[in-house]
Design goal:
The complex is a heterodimer of chains A (327) and B (330). Chain A has 327 residues and is of the alpha/beta class. Chain A contains twelve helices and twelve strands. Chain A has helices spanning 2-7, 56-64, 86-92, 113-118, 129-142, 147-150, 160-172, 190-206, 218-224, 242-247, 252-260, 301-305; strands at residues 11-23, 29-41, 45-49, 71-76, 79-80, 96-99, 178-182, 210-215, 227-232, 235-241, 311-314, 317-319. In chain A, strands 6-7-8-3-9-10-12-11 form an eight-stranded mixed β-sheet, sandwiched between helices. In chain A, a hairpin with a 5-residue loop joins strand 1 and strand 2 (29-41). The longest helix of chain A is centred in the middle third of the chain and has 17 residues, at 190-206. In chain B, 31% of the residues lie in helices and 22% in strands. An eight-stranded mixed β-sheet of chain B has the order 7-8-9-3-10-11-13-12, sandwiched between helices. In chain B, helix 3 (111-123) crosses helix 4 (127-140) and helix 3 (111-123) runs parallel beside helix 6 (159-171). Chain B starts with 5 loop residues before the first strand and ends in a 12-residue tail after the last strand. Classes of the chains: A alpha/beta (327), B alpha/beta (330). At the A-B interface, helix 8, helix 9, helix 10 and helix 11 of A face helix 7, helix 8, helix 9 and helix 10 of B.
């Protein structure tokens, strides 16, 4: 625990017991995120991985305070964003920015690249046109675009990969502390995906960014992350350093996810997915105890009775499971 | 060797657009034998879906098909068939499933009715018999409680279940060729594995032929007999699946394989991305269409377009003047 104390001052984002619930429309509550906690250290990339409906996007949006979480705290550099009044939150938004899955839809189709990328500069008050243009040009060339050729154009004139570069330029122009990426490469072709992943790594180094990177793709997450958290039905199952998690998955769900990844190698035997067939339970009515138990091949009576607490099995590797896998 | 079930000869599918003629598929040749699965891999815009739709005869009105283009299915030239015979062929002998199962499912009909419809139309089954067969088919595709699901509507099912229903419909008339266009792209990874296994199992059990279209090299790696890689409307490399991965010759295929992040890689490895973008298919450059992005480009590549050349042993073909041999799997 000593190590943790030393690192305390280096924690940029501390999320505690984050809960996101919303109205399902029929009077029932959707439990999108049900009490998750994690830290992100300065300069680190935390990957958040899970399948659709697991709550990873809801969690990211709650960190962004878009909308605010139902309960729990989100400390950014020691300040609890979840408790700040709206007027105090607004000037802080420069510190945490987000990019999204659909790069074209996330840009205003009627605004020129100059205005899209320069938009966030407005929070810094009156900047001269020259200064503004200089910073826009600088950040555009930073993300690998030719500023002169892009500034006056509209989003529809660009490919998906270029639009994602423009989104990234807009997100980093105010030099944020934290960048949240929600499936930023999922809509892109593999060759473009590789370009954007490399770019994110470069930007992270050049701008001293800390990242929360959300994806359903385990290979992509491993590539970019220092540590990885796995989510299932609103809960964190497992969190570990990337290499450790992929080598020694301890939660049966993590193991099933890893086995399901189609490897581009015909010699690699197809993994057997050790998971009970069936559907993801509804987040309006999650199972008692461990939420994965209805699909877990190792479930015992205890799993239905008691929710497993996250326990540390090795330094930095926590698993929320009564009967974690060994080896 | 027996006659192939499907022969595609010099297929050219062009679209008239406001900017000019778009060469979506531009001279594709291949054969597919009975009981084989061909994976067709490529990035968006490479023509893989248009190729599938060309085989199915499902093309929009602004299409111009090349004069020498022929699609021969079981000895019949599909281009020479009238619309009525084509319709009889589609659904019964050639079936297709799509990325989004909702595009092929009718939201206001129960699952059972939709499966039964094709059986009644193509096989003359009675309503009662069709329902019974629908339950069997739902069981075949791994749907639990098929006798309950048969009376449900598509919106009551999850994405994975809907794709299973779409597969059940496609299989209902025992097609000899199944075309699956990105069948798992919209699904979660654990569901994807189940659906791919299901398709492979059904293909083998029924001795069907299958064309599996995907952007994901990982999807074809374990579940196809041969692979055709498409780029800018053409097949640029074709081989038996293990051969293609072991002995990649076309630089585009190699680059595509190298740009995929892998779970076995250490974190933060820089990926070898392919610089640039695919060419404009309305005004394609001269010579090899991959030349502007190719790391091994020579003078000749920019002047002359390389044909798809079959190696002497007939197991591997590539459209490249300077084929490499870079095994990407150790």
């Amino acid at each position: 625990m000593n190590r943790q104390r030393q690192d305390d001052h280096d924690i940029i984002l501390a999320v505690r017991d984050l809960v996101v619930e919303h109205d399902g429309g029929d009077g029932r509550t959707v439990h999108a995120v049900s009490g998750i906690s994690f830290d992100i250290r300065r300069g680190e990339t935390l990957g958040l991985v899970g399948e659709s409906g697991c709550g990873k996007t809801s969690a990211a949006r709650a960190v962004m305070q878009l909308p605010r979480p139902t309960r729990g705290s989100v400390h950014l550099e020691g300040m609890n964003l979840a408790a700040l009044p709206r007027k105090d939150l607004r000037p802080l938004r420069a510190k945490f920015q987000m990019i999204f899955q659909d790069p074209i839809a996330s840009l205003n189709p009627r605004r020129r690249v100059r205005d899209i990328v320069g938009g966030p500069l407005a929070v810094q008050g009156e900047l001269g046109t020259e200064e503004k243009n200089r910073r826009i040009a600088e950040v555009l060339s930073d993300v690998g675009l030719n500023a002169e050729q892009t500034m006056e154009r509209l989003p529809h004139e660009f490919s998906g990969g270029q639009c994602q570069r423009i989104s990234l330029a807009r997100a980093i122009i105010l030099e944020p502390k934290l960048l949240i990426c929600d499936e930023p490469v999922s809509a892109l072709d593999v060759s473009v995906q590789a370009q954007i992943l490399n770019l994110l790594e470069e930007m992270k180094a050049r701008h001293a960014l800390t990242m929360l990177f959300i994806s359903h793709d385990l290979a992509v997450v491993k590539h970019i992350s220092d540590r990885v958290a796995v989510m299932y039905l609103g809960k964190l199952c497992e969190l570990a350093p990337a290499e450790e998690l992929y080598r020694h998955p301890g939660h049966p769900y993590t193991a099933a996810l890893l086995a399901a990844v189609p490897a581009p190698d015909p010699k690699r035997p197809l993994g057997r997915i050790d998971m009970v067939a069936g559907e993801l339970p509804s987040p309006t009515d999650p199972p008692s105890g461990c939420r994965f138990r209805t699909r877990c091949p190792h479930a015992q009576p205890l799993c239905a009775e008691q929710e497993p607490k996250a326990g540390e099995v090795s330094p930095g590797h926590t698993i929320a499971c009564h009967f974690p896998l060994s080896g | 060797m027996a006659m192939p079930l499907l022969q595609v000869i010099d297929q050219r599918t062009y679209f008239e657009t406001g900017r000019g003629l778009l060469r979506a598929v531009d001279g594709v040749d291949f054969e597919l034998h009975q009981g084989r699965t061909l994976g067709v891999v490529g990035e968006s815009g490479c023509g893989k879906t248009v190729l599938a739709r060309s085989i199915m005869g499902l093309l929009p009105s602004n299409t111009r098909v090349g004069e020498g283009s022929r699609i021969i299915f079981d000895g019949r030239d599909l281009g020479a068939l009238d619309e009525k015979s084509l319709r009889a062929l589609r659904g019964s002998e050639i079936a297709m499933i799509f990325q989004d199962p909702m595009t092929s499912l009718n939201p206001v009909l129960t699952v059972g009715k939709q499966i039964g419809e094709t059986l009644i139309r193509h096989h003359g089954l009675s309503r009662h018999a069709a329902r019974g067969r629908a339950v069997e088919l739902l069981r075949d595709v791994g749907i639990p409680q098929p006798e309950v699901r048969v009376d449900q509507y598509p919106h009551q099912l999850s994405g994975g279940m809907r794709q299973r229903v779409a597969i059940a419909i496609a299989l209902s008339c025992q097609p000899r060729l199944l075309i699956a266009d990105e069948p798992t792209t919209a699904l979660d990874v654990t569901v994807q594995a189940d659906i791919l296994d299901l398709l492979r199992r059904q293909q083998i059990e029924r001795d069907m032929s299958m064309i599996l279209i995907t952007h994901d090299m990982g999807v074809v790696a374990g579940r196809s007999d041969e692979v055709a890689v498409m780029y800018a409307g053409r097949i640029v490399e074709w081989a038996e699946t293990p051969e293609l991965f072991r002995n990649t010759r076309m630089p585009y295929t190699a680059a595509l394989l190298n740009s995929i992040p892998r779970v076995d890689d250490p974190p933060h490895r820089r990926i070898d991305a392919i610089a640039g973008r695919p060419p404009d298919l309305i005004h394609p450059p001269k010579g090899c269409l991959f030349a502007p992005r190719c790391g091994h480009v020579e003078q000749r590549c920019r002047r002359h377009s390389p044909p798809l050349q079959l190696a002497s042993d007939g197991t591997h073909a590539q459209a490249c003047w300077f084929p490499q041999s870079v095994g990407t799997t150790p």
